[in-house]
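Here's what a typical entry looks like (Ras-related protein RabG1):
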Amino acid sequence: MNDSDVFKILLIGDSAVGKTSLLLRFTDPNNFQETSVNMTSVDYKNKNITIDGRTFNLQIWDTAGQERFRTITSSFYRGAHGVLVCYDVTDQLTYNNVGLWMQEIQRYGVLGVSRVLVGNKCDLEDRKLVNASIAQEYADILGIPFIETSATTGVNVEEAFMAMADEIYRNHIGGSKPSVVKPVCGSPPRTKKNIC
């Protein structure tokens, strides 16, 4: 595997939206224990995936609580191929701040970096405050995939990371495979629209 086979992916978003839980659920689903997640203990984890018969190493970076202190710097974004912008579906403020995170990607990220909007904690249906159709509309305007996940139950977690990997593959390697995502917990899959 050479450097071109490594995709650097960042998890960003407000504190306590579940970024570390998503990372741990994806990279080690058999040993995931929600109570064991320590928000300041993870820098990055690796996971190998296959796209079109080719193996890629996803190097997934977590902010490890730095976002609470607004200490995320341009060095964190350096070399990133993709960014999962996460919010908590039960916390409207975390969704409202997504635009600020998108601005930060624009300010510090590589031109053309792939992005996926992720609404986490979709298992908390009775506490949900952010309507998926609003988030989908915003993602459509940006021309990026949107997906709701639950790190607790594992719903759509792998799909979110694979949508990110597919976006990177298409944008940076030249693959033609469109991202197919199941945006909302329990909804049928859909192909990402191309927005002009």
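Residues 86 and 118 are 5 Å apart (CA to CA).

More examples are in the samples folder.
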